[in-house]
Design goal:
The chain has about 550 residues and is an all-alpha fold. The chain is built from 25 helices and two strands. It has a two-stranded antiparallel ribbon. The two termini are about 25 Å apart.
Length: about 550
């Protein structure tokens, strides 16, 4: 393969502080934070920390420790299976995501712009939808089974257990590696590679010695996301019948609460250990290079181009088109049967409309509340550089590692064991929204810090001289400048809430259903047509959000 220089696609590298929303860096802000802002930051930090702290408190009070259930065979078995699956999925998603990023960003792959649009789209699918698509499509009567039978292939292996969960989670999570690696490769100055090529290095040697080390931070961050996503996943492993920690927790939380609590503590410790290891490792990786030249190199694939194109096509088809084709096939079969009078759908259209409406309004409210909850902390960090803000910021970011199932279980235990709280919040949407905010508030945190730092100090000084108070300055100065960034943060939260399953299943009020709970219940009850109909709606809305919030944004990085 030979390189050729590309003059377009000039990338502007964002600072690491801005990307991660860290409190360090940025312009020095003047003036101390108001006392009310300090109090708000501490109260909000306590709210975000409460679900995890309550699980630890319950475990200590109930005597679940090293001498109890925590290290028994009932927890070590699911722990081993969780680690096995997470390591396997992380390794395969890292290889797949990194390879696809290099092909899409640094080679002469045909239709590169199309692949850059399609490769992030597995993010629109909840993992249990992908799992159901593979299970049902390959089963007798499924679309793939019928097509293969026409060419004489009558026996198709059924995807279950470890292999099925590994395949589905790899296909659904590799964009978490692809997106940061693609952004880093786009920003990598071509001068480094040109120098290596002039010194006689082959294309593979340049990739190994130049691209990989400088993309290591992005690869590590993406791999962490995949690992945490895998250990916290419930829907895919439930449908694949692979007994990880999350599935064991869901099985035992009503029948055997002490076992469920011990499993929850094990999962909490595992997530904390992964985040701690990532922080330790990331501090020892090299920073991205800073150079005046941002012209990346394109490598000619030559005789490898057909094979590379086939690999990309296969990845896109398996992760994007195959699940949607399966959903659409199930939906149209059910609708046609219902119209012809052959067999009515098990769910009426008003129920589908109610689930869609519930999904939209609760997601919007959770997104708005999440941004409002993290904004005071972002101001403490980005404007006043307060130690209180730094502490609260660390608490919010750490909740990213807290799986949704643990938050749901903590809320359920808390309300069932506290009569006053049960009477007040036990069957309300407020508890559901609180759980969503704790789960996904960290997604809005980094963007909110960047938004706060984007407001020039001189605007505040001018408004203060003109007599504007803090509230008026917030409404007339801050919000117009911060609005677009805060909207993007709210959009990311909204997209995530729409696909959340464990919290929606365990914390929703009685009679309150969302698209995810309806789809999951329909798959569990073998109502495939109904699940397909609602799945098409969910994926369509999720696709639109992913396009505006992820794909278009990544193209402008």
């Amino acid at each position: 393969m030979t390189p050729r220089t590309r003059s377009g696609d000039v990338g502007v590298a964002e600072s690491e502080d801005e990307t991660m929303g860290a409190p360090a860096g940025g312009a020095e802000r003047r003036g101390g934070a108001p006392a009310a802002l300090h109090v708000a930051g501490l109260v909000l930090a306590c709210g975000f920390a409460f679900p995890g702290a309550y699980l630890v408190y319950r475990g200590a009070r109930d005597g679940i420790g090293p001498d109890g259930l925590l290290w028994s065979a009932r927890t070590l078995g699911p722990l081993w299976r969780t680690l096995r699956l997470a390591v396997a999925v992380s390794a395969s998603a890292t290889v797949l995501g990194t390879g696809l990023a290099w092909l899409a960003m640094r080679t002469d792959l045909p239709l590169r712009r199309l692949w850059r649009i399609l490769l992030p789209l597995p993010l629109v699918y909840p993992t249990f939808v992908g799992a159901a698509a593979f299970i049902r499509t390959l089963n007798p009567g499924g679309l793939a089974n019928d097509l293969l039978a026409r060419i004489g292939i009558s026996t198709v292996p059924e995807l279950r257990g470890f292999v099925g969960a590994w395949l589905v989670l790899t296909l659904m999570t590799f964009p978490y590696v692809y997106l940061p690696v693609a952004a880093r490769l786009r920003q990598l100055p071509g001068s480094l590679e040109e120098s290596a090529r002039l010194l006689g290095d082959s294309a593979f040697a340049v990739f190994r010695r130049i691209c990989m080390p400088h993309a290591a931070t992005a690869i590590g961050a993406g791999t962490l996301l995949v690992f945490l996503y895998t250990v916290s996943d419930f829907g895919a492993v439930q449908l694949m019948r692979y007994d990880t920690l999350t599935r064991a927790i869901a099985t035992n939380y009503l029948a055997n609460p002490p076992v469920a609590l011990a499993l929850s503590l094990m999962l909490l410790v595992l997530a904390a250990a992964v985040v701690g290891a990532e922080r330790w490792f990331s501090r020892r990786l090299p920073d991205a290079p800073r150079s005046g030249s941002h012209r990346p190199l394109d490598y000619r694939l030559g005789r490898w181009q057909p094979l590379a194109t086939a690999a990309v096509v296969l990845a896109v088809f398996a992760s994007v088109f195959a699940p949607f084709i399966a959903l659409f096939d199930w939906a149209q079969r059910g609708v046609l049967r219902s119209i012809s009078g052959d067999r009515a759908l098990a769910v009426d259209y008003s129920s589908v409309a109610d689930a869609t409406f519930n999904t939209i309004w609760v997601s919007v409210v959770a997104a708005v509340v999440s941004v409002a909850a993290v904004l005071p902390i972002a101001m403490l960090v980005g404007r006043h550089r307060s130690r209180t803000g730094s502490l609260a910021h660390a608490v919010v970011i750490s909740t990213f590692a807290l799986p949704g199932l643990l938050i749901a279980l903590s809320m359920r235990f808390w309300t069932l064991r506290t009569d006053f709280i049960f009477e007040l919040f036990g069957d309300t949407a407020a508890l559901l929204i609180f759980a969503y905010v704790v789960r996904f508030g960290s997604l809005a945190m980094g963007i909110s810090v960047v938004a706060v730092r984007s407001v020039p100090d001189r605007l505040h000084d001018s408004a203060r001289l003109l007599g504007a108070g803090p509230v008026r300055r917030l409404l007339t100065v801050d919000m117009p400048v911060m609005g677009p960034a805060l909207g993007a943060g709210a959009g990311l939260v909204l997209l995530s809430v729409m696909k959340e399953l464990p919290i929606s299943l365990l914390v929703s009020p009685l009679g309150f259903s969302t698209l995810t709970t309806r789809i999951f219940g329909s798959f569990e009850d073998a109502f495939v047509a109904e699940a397909g109909l609602m799945g098409v709606i969910l994926v369509t809305v999720s696709f639109a959000l992913t396009w505006f919030l992820v794909v278009r944004r990544s193209e402008h990085v």
